[in-house]
Amino acid sequence: MKRLTALLAACLMAAGILSGCAQKASAKTAETSSAAQTTAAQATPEATEAAPVSLTVFAAASMTETLTEIAGMYKEAAPNVTLTFNFDSSGTLKTQIQEGADCDIFISAAQKQMNQLDISADSSVNTEGLDFVLAGSRTNLLENKVVLVVPEGNPAGITSFDDIAADKVSMIALGNSDVPVGQYSQEILTNMGIWDAIQSKVTFGSNVKEVTSAVSEAAVDCGIVYATDAYSAGLTVAAEAPADMLKTPVTYPAAVLNTSSNPEAAQAFLDYLKTDDAKAVFEKVGFLMAD
Amino acid sequence: MDWFPLFNSLRISTVSTVLTFFLGILAAYYIARMPRFVKGILDVFMTLPLVLPPTVVGYLLLRILGPKRIIGAWVLDVFGIKMVMTWWSAIFAAAVVSLPLMYRTARGAFESFDKTLAYSGQTLGLSNSYIFWRIRMPYCRQGILAGMVLAFARALGEYGATSMIAGYTPGKTATISTTVYQLWRTDNDELACKWVLVNIGISFIVLMAMNLLENGSFRSRKENTRKGDV
Is the N or the C terminus of chain B less surrounded, counting Cβ atoms within 10 Å? Predict the structure, then answer.
């Protein structure tokens, strides 16, 4: 009997906690859905009568905060469109697309991954002859900067990229060779002549957010990420990539995929990303609009 | 082929298994003697890492052992050592996820222990530690060994928490699981396949050893007892 009572008490406790969380969550969704309803009612009649469309966007991890904010804004511009995001390293996303993942729009942090999916790109880059990019939809969306970031307080006293080879850096976090920021980092450090020397003190992350987390947690002495990630994570920037060491422009291409079931809606969202409203969100964190 | 990941994985699993051996049997022994309600709660805590996804375990470990967190900051202050991003950080991850396995099998083994043997030992004036190590442990040998092999196998195959707390530095913190992941991510399928085969090979050997040990103990027990014996 005692055991049963204890079991019952535990179940009631768990139920109480769960219902508390569920209430919070359902209150939140109730709020947003009622807000969406009122804005939808105020929106143009054509929009409310348009068929609901679901778009999947595969975007570079460095766009997590900005695209999430823009998605909220787009909900008012096109209430019938539901956006689902998959944020990860551009290399992983390219592999997922190649393996047949359901995706309407791809935004990469480097031309390389987009070229690997574009049949019109050079065959030396698109070695597998993949054809996923919808002709005419590919465009350069953003530009970013590559920076060296340090944990709060800069405990190792790092002031420039040259310090990476010095003893004061015992561990640096970089993106692996599949990640655009990792590729940019490798280019910079190879051009500086220190890439091979530092290999024993590099920990490789699978996307730029992993690198950012490692620096935020002070698990490493420094890391190389984008200026936008430094801003979003509140990280101190120790140095910017020396201009002559990074020859590849850090450009983010975007395109609609030819496997998309909603190419018009996808193109509409891509066009929205170039409007002034979206531009404001991007530029706030440090992106530059590509020409 | 760079064999460091194999060497690293094996040393991490071995140290982790030694740790979980002692922690697991001690926990099983003391928790089994506690009042019902306390036993139930402690049991849940001990089994939790088994049920939680390894990434959750890794995240929690990072929040405790990271250089800016409770334990990590203290260790950094007092000993000047960073507890994450080293090869031995993976030992914490492996030990935490494999402890429930050792604990549960040990507890099962201890609960099937015939207490009259312990009582006889006490009436003969033997110390508690003698009774534990020389009577209880050999009696429960089968279960304890099974627990150890399971814990070793789990530690060897640990990926999520290891990747989060030890990072990936080839030649310093790379394990077989993190290496295979990184090789796949960087399109190096050939080498990834080689490591997959190595991993299957080792797991095969470990499980064969487990079977042999179990059958061996079982056979000797069967031979030593006859119907009607206490």
Answer: C
Query: Which residue in chain B is spatially nearest to A6 when comparing CA positions?
Result: B37
The structural architecture, per CATH, of the domain A146-240 is: 3-Layer(aba) Sandwich (3.40)
Helix (H) or strand (E) holding A204: strand A202-205
Confidence of residue A18 (pLDDT cuts 50, 70, 90): low
Domain residues of chain B, as ranges? 4-224
Two tokens at B226?
A: 């006859």
Gyration radius of chain A's alpha carbons: 23
Q: Which two tokens stand for residue A8?
A: 């019952």
pTM above 0.95, yes or no: no
Residue of A nearest to B64 (CA): A217
What is the spatial distance between Cα B120 and Cα B126, in angstroms, rounded to a whole number?
9
- The ipTM, to two decimals, is 0.74
For B84, name the nearest residue in chain A, comparing CA atoms only.
Answer: A219
Determine contact, residues B62/A217, Cβ cutoff 8 Å: yes
Architecture label for domain B4-224: Orthogonal Bundle (1.10)
**What is the per-residue pLDDT across A72-113, written as a single tens digit (0 to 9) for each?**
999 998 999 999 999 999 998 998 999 899 999 999 999 999
CB proximity B192 to A under 8 Å: no
B84 shares contact with chain A (CB less than 8 Å): yes
